[in-house]
Amino acid sequence: MRLRRKPLPSAASHQRGAVGGIEMLPFGLLIFFAGTMLIANTWVVIDAKMATSSAARESVRFLVESDGDINGALAHGESAFDAQVKSGGALGSFEVESGGVIDSSFVRCARVTATYEYTTPVISVPFIGSWGNGIHVQSSHSEIVDPYRAGLGTASLC
Amino acid sequence: MLARPARGGRGSALLLVPAGVLIFIILAAITVDFSHLYLAKRELHSVASAVANDAAGLGIDAVAIREGANPTEAFSLQLAREAGKASFLAQDTDGTVQIILTTRDGRPAISVTVQKQVRYIFAPGVPGGPSQHTVAVTAYAYLLSEP
Fold this sequence. Notes:
The complex is a heterodimer of chains A (158) and B (147).
Chain A: H1 18-21, H2 24-65, H3 70-84, E1 91-97, E2 111-120, E3 135-144
Antiparallel strand pairs in A: 1-2, 2-3
Helix pairs in contact in A: 2-3
Chain B: H1 12-59, H2 62-66, H3 77-90, E1 96-104, E2 107-119, E3 132-142
Antiparallel strand pairs in B: 1-2, 2-3
Helix pairs in contact in B: 1-3
């Protein structure tokens, strides 16, 4: 039996086809990074909007139904916000409309509106750029003070 | 006998990378668009609940209730609609609202349906893709003398 040495493959044969698509790699990676950052930024805004709308709703519900005060309701809303956005930092405010009918504004059937604001941190995206110091998100919710709730005086707007 | 891999396929993985990345981004964009729809639906549900609560609260004559009438007898649909529309205008949203008196699970209830057109974020960038979607949400407030 005669043994023959197997010829070694040439180095060039492993590179076949590589040149045909290699220039797409940096483009693909660039699209990947830019697209991912754009989507991440969009998601941050949607997440913040969900959190601020939850905070506004929960704080108004707390105020119109329970015996708590405005500070308690603000804290309640901030807790709802912090449960979704861990870093916190939402700014809440209340407006109570009684139409100037009576002296004390917080009475039954008075309209209570809570507004929560938050500025989301954003990353600069290639091709698109930055959005300044962040994107401002704001949500509000409005309800009347429950006409049948306890804990208030005899004054009423109903 | 194992088949030899075709030599013509060498290097094709390089071209698959950007294609895969593009598919990943498209899927992520679809996720964000649907999350945006979900956010709109959640917000509309909050609005509809608030309108239903306000309409039920102000549609019932409190004096009649204190005199012993049940909530259905003391209820005025016209007052409830006026209160509901005022409540809807006070919300930070647009769209249309419909308030009707109905029964649900055998109990009298106010049904509030809020409808709104929501624009997609990324889908309009796709040729032939949809630009908006109609979101409709219904909330109920029961007319009961006991919770």
